[in-house]
Amino acid sequence: MSTPSPTRIATALSAEYRARLTGIAREVGFPVGTRLFNEGGHADRFWIVRSGTVGLDVHVPGRQAAVIETLGSGELVGWSWLFPPYTWHFGAEATSPVRAHEFDAAAVRSMMEADPRFGSAMDHWVGQVLARRLVAARVRLLDLYAPHGSGSPP
């Protein structure tokens, strides 16, 4: 049996905090191929996947965008909404039909400011997601563009 991922909402946040967060969510759906956001765009919302998959990608000049990670149920799509200047660092596209909870970033940031314990839990969760995504981006880009095997961590 595998250990639950610390980046999935069910593991990262208490039931109370999940309920508070999903209480302000809007349910949305995306067909295959829908761009949720593009690198460099304004990060004013984020999503938690309920079903389906979303591919995170990074722009590579002169080449097709490189998919760095595929996200599924319970995973956070987007972390750039938490850090000024609120600009997407990656792109995201639905790689299968997606159902998700969508959140207004400003509303969540206000909730975080109003309740420092909730804010700390959210910061910790997004920090774990951010760390995982940066490692995934590094490994994927090294696998694609560096000599064979150099993308594996030491």
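Next protein, fold it too.
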Amino acid sequence: MVSIVQNVAIDCADAYGLARFWSTVTGCPVDPDARPGDRETQVTLGDGPVLYFNQVPEPKTTKNRIHLCLRPETTRDHEVEWLLGLGATFVGDHRKPDGTGWAVLADPEGNEFCVLRSASDRAAPPR
């Protein structure tokens, strides 16, 4: 027997607002029935699981134990700059001088996520 991952649940203070951020990041739509102020909503990721946003009363207080890792279509460093422009914050730099590694960012509510190297980054010769 196996289980299918149906969704990744993300507790937050503003379900609709955070869903809009992740919708822009992923290029996938927010549930068309969702409205500002809704206590829950989702972003459907193509053939993958759903990002499910659930409003909770308590704030985030510690590091995520599970997080999303993004593999951008553009370069990792370009994606980091774009995400910062969308409202993400920089948390940690694990990029190495040879071009390997990743960057850790946080979404507008402080949920950490990683930006990995893109296919073009991985295909480039080491620096």
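About the second fold: Residues 13 and 55 are 5 Å apart (CA to CA).
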